[in-house]
Write a structure and sequence with these properties.
With about 45 residues, this protein is mainly alpha-helical. The protein has one domain. The protein has three helices and no strands. The longest helix has 13 residues. It is globular, with a radius of gyration of 11 Å. The two termini are about 20 Å apart.
């Protein structure tokens, strides 16, 4: 169940979260995306 719930995330929010302190030319790594998704999934 956890794996499927983790797959259902607001990707747009995750990307906005990643880009809030980056310039347009900076692309987040897969690891950064996973960290952001985990943070969003566990945020209250």
């Amino acid at each position: 169940m956890q794996a499927s719930s983790l797959a259902i995330v607001d990707t747009d929010a995750a990307i906005r979260f990643l880009y809030r302190e980056k310039t347009l030319g900076d692309y987040p790594s897969i690891a950064d995306i996973r960290v952001a998704v985990d943070r969003l999934a566990t945020s209250p």
